[in-house]
Design brief:
The complex is a heterodimer of chains A (222) and B (398).
Chain A lengths: L4 E10 L6 E11 L4 E5 L6 H8 L7 E6 L2 E2 L5 H11 E4 L11 H13 L6 H9 L16 H13 L5 E5 L7 H16 L3 E5 L3 H4 L4 E6 L2 E2 L1
Helix pairs in contact in A: 3-4, 3-5, 4-5, 5-6
Chain B lengths: L1 H14 L1 H36 L5 E6 L19 E2 H11 L3 E14 L6 E8 L4 H4 L2 E4 L7 E5 H6 L7 E4 L6 E9 L13 E5 H8 L4 E2 L1 E5 L5 H12 L8 E5 H44 L1 H9 L4 H39 L8 H30 L3 H6 L2
Parallel strand pairs in B: 4-9, 6-8
Antiparallel strand pairs in B: 1-11, 1-12, 2-10, 3-4, 3-7, 3-11, 5-8, 6-9, 7-8
Classes of the chains: A alpha/beta (222), B alpha+beta (398).
């Protein structure tokens, strides 16, 4: 079966006035469907660059990246946007929900981007149920929810379009230990249900939840 | 997709109600300034049009005075600045079948009734048969007798003259007394003869009284088919054959009217353009507010882009926001402009009868449309900027 992510000799160089900065150098790896992976490394090691490339927010300077078998280098901005919408679910450290929309609308947002119109709430309600968010909170705005509840909404939003990959950037970094643990338990549950999850973290306790850890140092896989 | 962006735009405007209201207020002021000035201009044009339109079918022929100029009837009399009987006959021949009316005119002292103060008014001498073709009466009947006369409506009101009143012409009535047989309908300002404050007598009485037989101050040609330009050209060709020594000055009243309307139109445009300055200021305010909105929502834009919103979607969201401000502000401005136009018309033109017209409806529509276009135009760059933010940088933005 085609890996959901394949990096083949990928490098990323940022041209700066003071001189080029190589963020990633000749990185190759694959992520199989259903894997639960942690990407770890010190600050400045290239974790964020790797996350941006996996999330199709950026393209490599050299090498090839395949997402679900699709090579992303030559894609237009709209094609990359659609790929992110359909194949990738993002979960951020600071939840990043839209404060002007209620919970259902937040969760439905990627679905509406896909359908091009307002969609019914059935699937959003279903997904919110799967992340264990009480139904009474569905019409609230994000700021009326606790951090843990907001992160559950963010996870539901990431799941709404049935993505191939969930990309998580320090998903418990803004939560207390207990809430962080419940979120990681939810991640584990989602992985068991078949989701491919990649977590970028520098916290070994979070990495302990995953099946495999990719360590990155100075832009290379260690 | 549009529905959710529409919703976000509405909610963002509600969230920043004060800021959005101030931006709308700018547009309201801009639309009111432009539209009310336009309404005032239209009112001025229509007021003048109503006063002048009755003479739009005339060509006026006057003796050439060495450089043109529009000498309305009623001025002083100079023997070498008169049209001759020969001139009149030539004009009559070339303009046939249109009616050519020879006109005598002078200023004269007169008295109404006994022991009244001296009045100075214009006296016109016209052939009695031609008078019904030139003047309409509001009271009495046309005069065919040398002992009778017609008076203008303003003259009648100012001096309490009625049908049957007697007017002594000349100092101490030296030229005799005439009986008023009819009151002439108001004609307003005219290019041919201005009768509102004048007395109209028969040509025979005028010629006998002032000894001007066969000498005319002007000839008025009433053009029945409306083609005044051709009549003017025909007269000039016939009477001004000698380019070095012209005989007559010919005025096409329709062309002159058009020039006047054009001038008023230009004034209206100019005044509206001054009002437009406030619209530009409002546009700058909208631009500023939209840029603020973009800068406040950089992170939100980054998240939208990262979870699958195309650039066009982000742009649409901000264009909607500018559009909502523009539409609401412009419509409110349009409504207020009608009230302002009413007030300005009442104050400056002393009448509001020209308020409900097609031209004003067009002016209001144009003002409202201009307000909306300005808002949308001022929203385009901020929207474009938002859409083209780098999603990676935008997400990191604090």
């Amino acid at each position: 079966m085609e890996p959901v992510i394949r990096f083949a000799d990928v490098s990323k160089v940022y041209p700066l006035r003071a001189g080029d900065v190589t963020a990633l150098s000749h990185v190759s790896f694959e992520v199989e469907r259903g894997e639960f992976i942690a990407i770890m490394g010190p600050s400045g090691s290239g974790k964020s660059t790797l996350l941006n490339l996996m999330g199709c927010l950026d393209t490599p300077t050299s090498g090839d990246i395949f997402i679900s078998g699709i090579r992303i280098q030559d894609m237009t901005d709209d094609e990359l946007t659609d790929l992110r919408r359909d194949r990738i679910g993002f979960i951020f450290q600071y939840f990043n929900l839209f404060p002007l929309l209620n919970i259902i609308e937040n969760v439905n947002f990627p679905q509406m981007m896909k359908a091009g119109e307002v969609v019914d709430e059935t699937k959003a309600v279903e997904v919110l149920k799967s992340v264990h968010l009480e139904e009474s909170l569905h019409t609230h705005t994000p700021l009326e929810l606790s951090g843990g509840q907001q992160q559950r909404v963010a996870i539901a939003r990431a799941l709404i379009n049935d993505p191939d990959i969930l990309l998580c950037d320090e998903p418990t970094g803004n939560l207390d230990t207990k809430t962080g643990a419940s979120i990681m338990n939810l991640m584990t549950e989602l992985n068991k249900r078949g989701s491919t999850i990649i977590i970028v973290t520098h916290d070994p306790t979070i990495a302990a939840y995953t099946q495999r850890t990719i360590r990155i140092v100075d832009g290379r896989i260690a | 997709m549009n529905a959710i962006f529409w919703e976000i735009s509405k909610r963002n405007i509600r969230l920043h109600m004060l800021r959005s209201s101030l931006a709308m207020l700018g547009i309201v002021i801009g639309v009111v300034a432009i539209v009310s000035m336009g309404i005032l201009g239209n009112g001025m044009v229509m007021l003048v049009s109503d006063s002048l339109s009755s003479v739009g079918d005339s060509v006026i022929v006057m003796p050439y005075a060495g450089g043109g100029g529009m000498g309305m009837g009623g001025g002083g009399r100079t023997a070498d600045l008169m049209l001759t009987e020969q001139n009149f006959q030539q004009i009559k021949r070339v303009v046939a079948p249109n009616l050519a009316v020879p006109v005598h005119s002078t200023s004269e002292r007169m008295n109404v009734g006994v022991n009244s103060d001296d009045i100075i008014a214009t006296v016109y001498g016209l052939p009695p048969d031609d008078v019904p073709d030139m003047l309409q009466l509001e009271a009495g009947s046309y005069n065919n007798q040398d002992s009778g006369c017609l008076v203008g409506t303003t003259f009648a009101k100012d001096h309490n003259v009625k049908v049957g009143s007697r007017i002594s012409i000349g100092s101490d009535g030296q030229y005799g007394t005439l009986r008023v047989t009819g009151i002439i309908e108001e004609r307003g300002m005219s290019f041919d003869i201005s009768t509102d404050s004048a007395v109209v007598v028969t040509d025979k009485w005028f010629e006998n009284t002032y000894d001007v037989n066969g000498q005319y101050d002007e000839v008025v040609v009433k053009v029945t088919n409306g083609d005044t330009a051709t009549v003017k050209t025909t007269i000039e060709k016939q009477l001004n054959r000698n380019i070095k020594e012209k005989t007559v000055t010919v005025i096409d009243s329709k062309a002159t009217l058009e020039t006047i309307y054009e001038t008023f139109g230009t004034i209206t445009t100019f005044v509206s353009a001054i009002g437009g300055i406030s619209m530009i200021v409002a546009g700058v305010s909208i631009f500023n507010i939209m840029m603020m909105s973009v800068n406040e929502r950089v992170k939100e834009i980054g998240i939208m882009r990262s979870i699958g919103t195309r650039k066009r979607g982000v742009m649409t969201m901000f264009i909607y926001e500018a559009g909502i401000i523009g539409v609401c502000g412009s419509i409110a401005g349009g409504v207020l402009a009608v009230l302002a136009g009413y007030g300005i018309s009442a104050l400056m033109l002393q009448t509001t009868e020209y308020l409900v017209t097609v031209s004003n409806a067009i002016t209001i529509f144009q003002g409202v449309a201009f307000g909306i276009v300005v808002c949308l135009a001022c929203g385009i760059y901020p929207a474009w900027k938002a859409a083209n933010l780098n999603p990676i940088d935008a997400i990191r933005h604090e």
